[in-house]
Amino acid sequence: MSRKLQDSAFRLLKKAAYDIDHDRYKKAFENLDKVEKIEKEVNNPEISYHLLFFKGFAKYRIDELEESLALFGKALEISWDLFSKEPEKEDYRSFMRDTIGSIGDILLKLEDPVKAREYISPMKGIFEKTVLGFEKLLESDPENPEYLEDFLKTIEHIGLCFEAGELTGDAVPLFDKKFDLIEKLLKSETEISEHLSSLDDSLMNFGRMCEGEEYLEEEYIEEAKRVYDRAIEIYGKVLDKDPENSETKVYLSYIYRYMAGMYSDQENLVKAEECYKEALGLLESEIENEPENIPVSENIEVSENISVPKNILFSMAIADMYKDSGLIFSDTEDTTKARDYYTKARETFRGLINKYPDLLEADKNLASSLDELAELFSEIGDFESAEMCYKDELNIYENLLQKEPENPENPEYSLKLSDIYRELGDLFAEEEEIEKARAYYDKEIEIYENLHPAEADKLMLEANKADTWNQIGRLYAEEEPETAVQYHERALPIFLEAFESDPTSEFFHEELLETLTVLGTLFKENREFEKAIRMYERVLEVQKQLLEIMPPASCHDHDHDHNLNHSHNLNHSHNLNHTHDLNHDHDLNHDLDHDHEMDHDHALEHCHDLDIETTYFELGVLHSEIGDEEKASVYHRQALERFEQIIAEQSGNPEILILTSGKAFFSGMSLLEKLESENKDSSIARKYYELALRTIEKLYEAYPMNLKLQEMLASFAEQIGDIYRDADKLEETIQEYEYAYRSLKILYENDPENPKHLHHMLGALNNIGIGYSVTDQQEKGKECFEKALALNESLAKSNPEDLNPLRRNFLLFSNYANLLEELGDSKTAKEYRKKAEELDAKLTEEDPEWTSLVEEL
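The chain above was modelled as a monomer; its predicted structure follows.
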């Protein structure tokens, strides 16, 4: 009876395997449930193993990965028990190999190294015992090719698991065992091509594991180099046996590419280039002088439905290698080498097209390579070469269009041509070659107008055309704003229709909002305030509609890193004044203007609801321009309420709090500057600033170790202080600079070696000193100037060659002399004026950019 039950179980297992293979999972699980009942009666470990394996495999196929891993974990325990007792049995070796391989596949599919390590941890013991079991088995028959092959595949699968968990320390020792096994197999007549391919996969994944910063330390580099060197030795032995083995040469070239990547990450560009040259040499050696003599049987598939000679394959690989060689130099200050390598790649592609026009003038793979190369040329500013690549790509798709008439409902090639014309237009738009850019954009539009898509696609086609009109409008925004308006107004009705048909389409609503906003800005700059108001009112309508159908949660529910120990820079600089009159400062360092750059994670890019506060703000400004202060006040109040709402809703999300407070600050600063210059009530602008200040202050209380927040506070106060200084509001000026000084002092105490903080403290003290001097608080002013002089002396000692301390001392001596004169100390004032004159003479002699200011003393 037991025998019949076992036979029945195996028949059901075969059926289940067939059902899984044909995606009939319900039926498969029904058969496996039947097997499970039999298994409880017969207690056969092989049936138990197969049952767990097929259940795990079925769960894997339906993406229930964690359940699958649990089942394979149990299967692993059974397979080890069988293998450990009879390792010479082929079935049991395959149980181990296949189970570990399946576990590795699932762990990779998880795409979660942390979780992978959790699963690997309890399995490590079996992995180690399996390796020892195979080693013991080989002691009995060291040259047995079946044992060697099974051991090699099992090691590869264990390595796969370690790669999924990014366990480099565990993966590296396996390479040595793998190399030993391959060397033994080389001595036999076994076909090793599959193993070389697998080795290359492992080395590629090993390279990826070593890309993190922690692996750039010398010990890891040496370990990685040892692994690569051993692989080079293995491939060399294969070539010793078969010098014409092209496949092995390709794998060997890949190793040099992996090493080049490693050295590039280490910023050892000399070594990286040497490795690329080795790889290039291997591939170039495969280019034959008379490719026409290559038999058809050696042709290799490169593009869909096109067979090409071997020379094309290797030439394409060489061009790709030139491109990679250029990449290592693309981020350096001198991009000459990058351009040289990219040019060699382009010349290789062009040579292939000339030599094999019938094959390659319609090759999509070549088109894709040219597209990538064009982007690389563009990144290093070689627009002429980029244009040449795009033009070659255009020729390919034009040929494809002629050879393969398109399905009107799927105009693949025409749309690809339109994409290339867009790239060319963008290329020359960036170069500010307006007419050339427009010519390419016009060609893109011409393609759209000649297409006859299905009814359902017509609106999208029109939207693409409208998007290109917007691109042309941007070309003329500065030089010919009237022309720009015409193009944006042409695009507007299309996006209005598109948005009405599908408001949830990100493309439609983003393009509509952008078109309205650009028009509003153009009208505003042309002082057509009524038109600008109408545009922003429509922006507001769209945003409110989007909020109804796409609530804020859909925008704000991101996984953010709440660790604020990375930088949120609000870089700033400050110029010193040399005169009592705060309305007439002489900027001596024109390159040190405020830089309002704020870094934040790309995940924080605005959703539509984060822009409503900006729209309210713009409407407030515009209504103020037409004299409707009541409406302006209403809109500013709504903007502030919106800012406060976001801050309240996102109180636990520091990333968004920084972003929002930065927006509030810059809105308030721009408004304050405008209102103060027009001598208008600026209290509403101050509210934006105070909101931003409060938000960052609270964040700093929560994250006191994050000094970047303190830098933001200092920057906020300095910039507002600048505005009040220029408006001659002395009390407010002093208040802001004193706030800035306190923040800067905290920064200096935490990082006394950073000269930037000292520089800004000097600026703050100088401005406070001038402010006190003008408001008849000369003793306080004197104290500030003396502190500033002491700080500047520290800066001068740290870098004696720097002329900036001399420039600062000139200003400080001048301002201090003026203050001493007011205090009645003419003798000391005279001494400081003399010092200022001496500095002026020295700077006139040594600094070509210095303009003598001694007459103004």
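The chain has a mean pLDDT of 83.
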